[in-house]
């Protein structure tokens, strides 16, 4: 191609370029007209452009592109020609300077853009694939944590009922204030305000302030199980970071009735003492769970569904306790202990035939001198030497073995020295001084003769007598298996040495609990059959099924005839004018019983000298004597030693009568036909 | 460059004159029709008459129907979702009511137990001037009187279920129905 031809080739694009430029300018400015077509116009436009600025050619290129789209004729023109024209224009503006502008390879640009787009797309796809597969767990967990809540549905702890249907212990909803220290703006102010409103002790207030300030926890208890009114008043302040929870609180709606027996739970509702501990597994339910999806406002997301595992409530206990009788027994015991200036006392009231315990009362005098119901069930925990009440078991062995009958008479001295001249030498005397005199077996129990009982029991034999005591339940825990229950202190008869071979006959050298002693006396009342004490009458399961507990275990200890004989002699103890238990008489119903006054072991491991002794005064009996229905044991710990009422017949027997009267009313006990009470009383 | 430009201008002027002479007459009066004959006139005359016919509306109808269906489905889905939400709200409300009823039930049980508490009863009785009975007196009733009372149903000596048992049964029934409910 010659130079001229090349010029003509270039000229046409130049003109066209100039025209395109003009059109482009006309769109942007009204001062430029289409008439200014041609190379001159093109030069003028190019010359007006600032050298070195790229927007001129770029704008031209864009204009050309638009024009090309508008004109099919022009679009058919090769791209290279248009670019060359632009080069020519540039060259024309700078005469003498050769500038080379390369518009670049559009194809390469497109390829580059395409490659970049593909890379970007691949990167996005790869990221999505990663998030959907390998990295999905954390995101799924995060999303789940936002919308899914897992709430523990606490199973209500079982209620403890009295036999009359009254609630002794139950769980009720209460308010608990909690805090999220990280959300508390003014820790000092909040702690002070809460301390004032909730009347928190200084230590608690300080610990709250420390927790609020540290902000290292997101959950802190402020006050648990408080009254709704106080909690609501705190919440009304709208303090940031303070929230309200509902949780069950264990309460005793009947007051302190049966407190020592029922025990207690910790603040989380776990049994720590008494029946709450003994039957903790029975009372504790199985918590449930609810998993649901919710929105930001806590509303369930429609259609999301919820998984709910219902809690299984704990079983309820129906005790054998009579709530009203329990209350009266406790009140009577408190009054009596206070009157006697005693250290404490215990009472057990049980059903003769079934062993069901109607009431168990334990009271003690506090350091402040106030007599109150104890938190511990001393009737099952505390042991003491039974004293003369134990003569019931000794003489039962005597009668049951046929060694003697109630009318068998022996000479009984008022005082003896046992094993005189041996290391075990022990002076023994009766409570009432008397010369050696003939006494029947009935006289021995009526007058509570230690020496008479000793002499009679010796005829039974030590080992045999020991076997009787074990059969009466001594030396082993009762079937209650009460927490911390004592088995008493009992040494097998084969190990007895010296005075140990005789002192058990009148109630020394072995210790018993009040429950053991009551159950043993009840054996005589129950026709010679031991029946284990029982506290739980029935349970109510989670499905509402009422299930009676198994009857108490029984075993025969003495023959029924022997029991009848003993009952007869024990009736004399109460009804005989010379009996030690006259104060146990009640109107209209005959009572059988036995008094007991035991020396207490002092701190120096002795019984102390005369005038410095401490006593345990007891009375155990049952009624109606002909067909016993209720057995009661009353024991007073350390009545005033200077008082004439320190003996069992004076300290405990009157309380027995009071409690028996209450039991007659509450349990609707009627006398057996022909029974009008003790003749003396009648 | 200038010469070449002048030559190009001359060529272009000549071509322009030629074109003008084809389109316009020499005197510039009548305009000659410049027709490029590409086919026979007879062929043009024999072409069939074309008429504008109404466009087929089947597609439009289909689209309209489709849109209606889609719109209906969306409306239905929205209504269904609304219904779901409404029912979910109802369920949430019922759950709250159940919990509140449970709490109320426990509160009422506690209040009843407190009212029946022996301590409270003794206190109230003392306020009324009542004192615990210290003595018991049994009165022998004539057998005929006892039989008459039993026949009248005024006595529970017949061994019928006592109210106490009834209380346990009521409680057990409630527990069976709602004991495990949250």
Structure description:
The complex is a heterodimer of chains A (682) and B (182). Chain A is of the alpha+beta class and 682 residues long. Chain A contains 22 helices and 26 strands. In chain A, the strands form eight sheets. In chain A, strands 2, 3, 4, 5, 10, 21 and 22 form a seven-stranded mixed beta sheet that branches. In chain A, a hairpin with a 7-residue loop joins β16 and β17 (426-429). Residues 1-92 of chain A have low confidence and may be disordered. Chain B has 182 residues and is mostly helical. Chain B has helices at residues 2-23, 41-45, 58-115, 118-127, 143-152, 163-178. Chain B is rod-shaped and about 150 Å long. The chains are: A alpha+beta (682), B mainly alpha (182).
Give a summary of the structure in a few sentences.
The complex is a heterodimer of chains A (682) and B (182). Chain A is 38% helix and 20% strand.
Question: What is the element layout, followed by pairings?
Answer:
The complex is a heterodimer of chains A (682) and B (182).
Chain A: H1 3-28, H2 39-48, H3 55-70, H4 72-75, H5 79-93, H6 106-132, H7 136-147, E1 148-153, E2 160-161, E3 167-179, H8 187-198, H9 202-214, E4 220-226, H10 228-235, E5 242-251, H11 259-262, E6 264-265, E7 271-273, H12 274-278, H13 280-283, E8 288-293, E9 306-309, E10 316-319, H14 323-339, E11 344-351, E12 357-365, E13 371-373, H15 378-381, E14 383-384, H16 391-400, E15 409-412, E16 415-418, E17 426-429, E18 437-440, H17 441-446, H18 450-458, H19 462-471, E19 512-513, H20 514-525, E20 529-531, E21 536-540, E22 546-548, E23 554-556, H21 560-575, E24 592-599, E25 615-623, E26 630-637, H22 648-666
Parallel strand pairs in A: 2-10
Antiparallel strand pairs in A: 1-8, 2-3, 3-4, 3-5, 6-7, 8-9, 10-21, 11-12, 11-26, 12-13, 14-19, 15-18, 16-17, 20-23, 21-22, 24-25, 25-26
Chain B: H1 2-23, H2 41-45, H3 58-115, H4 118-127, H5 143-152, H6 163-178
């Amino acid at each position: 191609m010659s130079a001229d031809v090349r010029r003509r080739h270039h000229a046409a694009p130049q003109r066209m370029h100039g025209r395109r430029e003009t059109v482009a300018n006309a769109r942007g400015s009204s001062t430029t007209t289409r008439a200014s077509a041609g190379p001159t116009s093109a030069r003028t436009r190019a010359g007006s452009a600032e050298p070195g600025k790229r927007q001129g050619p770029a704008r031209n290129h864009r204009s050309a592109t638009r024009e090309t789209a508008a004109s099919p004729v022009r679009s058919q023109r090769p791209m290279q020609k248009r670019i060359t024209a632009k080069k020519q224009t540039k060259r024309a503006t700078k005469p003498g300077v050769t500038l080379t502008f390369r518009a670049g390879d559009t194809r390469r640009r497109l390829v580059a853009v395409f490659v970049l787009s593909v890379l970007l797309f691949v990167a996005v796809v790869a990221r999505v694939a990663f998030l959907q597969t390998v990295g999905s767990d954390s995101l799924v967990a995060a999303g789940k944590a936002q919308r899914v809540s897992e709430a523990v549905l606490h199973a209500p702890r079982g209620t403890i009922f009295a036999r009359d249907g009254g609630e002794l212990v139950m769980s009720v909803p209460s308010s608990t204030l909690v805090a999220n220290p990280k959300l508390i703006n003014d820790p000092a102010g909040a702690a002070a305000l809460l301390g004032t409103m909730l009347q928190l002790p200084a230590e608690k207030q300080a610990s709250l302030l420390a927790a609020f300030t540290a902000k290292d926890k997101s959950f802190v208890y402020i006050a648990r199980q408080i009254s709704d009114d106080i909690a609501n008043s705190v919440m009304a302040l709208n303090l940031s970071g303070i929230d309200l929870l509902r949780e069950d609180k264990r309460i005793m709606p009947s007051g302190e009735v049966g407190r020592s027996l029922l025990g207690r739970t910790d603040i989380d509702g776990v049994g720590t003492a008494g029946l709450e501990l003994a039957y903790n597994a029975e009372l504790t339910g199985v918590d449930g769970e609810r998993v649901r999806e919710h929105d930001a406002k806590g509303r369930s997301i429609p259609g999301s569904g919820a998984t709910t595992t219902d809690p299984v409530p704990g079983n309820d206990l129906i005790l054998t306790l009579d709530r009203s009788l329990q209350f009266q027994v406790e009140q009577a015991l408190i009054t009596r202990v206070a009157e006697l200036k005693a250290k404490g006392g215990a009472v057990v009231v049980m059903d003769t035939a079934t062993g069901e315990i109607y009431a168990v009362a334990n009271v003690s005098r506090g350091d402040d001198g106030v007599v109150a119901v104890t938190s511990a069930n001393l009737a099952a925990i505390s042991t003491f030497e039974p004293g003369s009440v134990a003569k019931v078991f000794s003489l039962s062995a005597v009668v049951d073995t046929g060694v003697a009958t109630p009318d068998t008479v022996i000479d009984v001295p008022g005082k003896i020295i046992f094993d005189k001249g041996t290391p075990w030498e022990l002076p023994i005397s009766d409570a009432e001084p008397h010369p050696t005199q003939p006494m029947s077996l009935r006289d021995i129990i009526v007058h509570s003769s230690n020496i008479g009982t000793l002499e009679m029991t010796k005829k039974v034999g030590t080992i045999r007598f020991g076997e009787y005591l074990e059969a009466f339940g001594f030396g082993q825990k009762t079937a209650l298996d009460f927490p911390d229950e004592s088995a008493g202190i009992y040494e097998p008869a084969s190990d007895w040495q010296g005075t140990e071979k005789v002192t058990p006959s009148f109630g020394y050298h072995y210790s018993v609990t009040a429950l053991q002693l009551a159950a043993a006396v009840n054996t005589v009342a129950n026709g010679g059959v031991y029946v284990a004490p029982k506290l739980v009458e029935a349970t109510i399961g989670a499905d509402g099924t009422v299930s009676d507990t198994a009857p108490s275990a029984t075993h025969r200890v003495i023959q029924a005839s022997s029991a009848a004989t003993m009952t007869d002699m024990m009736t004399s103890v109460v009804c005989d004018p010379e009996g030690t238990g006259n104060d146990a008489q009640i109107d209209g119903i005959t009572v059988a019983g036995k008094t007991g006054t035991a020396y207490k072991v002092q701190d120096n491991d002795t019984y102390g000298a005369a005038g410095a002794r401490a006593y345990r005064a007891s009375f155990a009996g049952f009624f109606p004597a002909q067909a016993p229905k209720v057995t009661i044991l009353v024991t007073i710990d350390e009545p005033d030693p200077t008082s004439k009422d320190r003996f069992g017949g004076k300290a405990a027997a009157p309380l027995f009568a009071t409690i028996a009267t209450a039991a007659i009313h509450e349990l609707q006990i009627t006398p057996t036909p022909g029974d009008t009470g003790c003749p003396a009383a009648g | 460059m200038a010469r070449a430009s002048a030559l190009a201008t001359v060529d272009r002027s000549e071509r322009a004159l030629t074109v003008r002479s084809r389109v316009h007459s020499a005197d510039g009066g009548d305009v000659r029709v410049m027709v490029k004959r590409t086919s026979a006139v007879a062929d043009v005359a024999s072409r069939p008459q074309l008429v504008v016919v109404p466009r087929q509306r089947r597609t439009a109808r289909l689209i309209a129907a489709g849109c209606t269906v889609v719109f209906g489905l969306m409306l239905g889905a929205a209504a269904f979702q609304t219904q779901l939400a409404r029912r979910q709200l109802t369920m949430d409300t019922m759950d709250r009511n159940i919990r509140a009823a449970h709490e109320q039930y426990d509160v009422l049980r506690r209040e009843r137990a407190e009212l029946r508490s022996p301590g409270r009863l003794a206190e109230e009785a003392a306020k009324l001037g009542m004192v615990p009975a210290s003595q018991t007196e049994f009165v022998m009733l004539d057998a005929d009187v006892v039989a008459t009372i039993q026949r009248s149903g005024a006595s529970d000596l017949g061994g019928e279920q006592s109210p106490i048992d009834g209380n346990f049964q009521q409680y057990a029934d409630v527990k069976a129905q709602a004991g495990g409910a949250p």
